[in-house]
Amino acid sequence: MKYLRQLAILFALCVAGDLLSVLCAGKLPGNVLGMSLLFILLAFGVIKLSHVEEAADFFLKNMAFFFLPACLGILDVFPQIKSQLVPILAVIILTTLITAAVTAGTVHLVLKMQARRAPVETAVPAETVHSEEATLS
Question: Are residues 114 and 59 in the same domain?
Answer without folding.
Answer: no
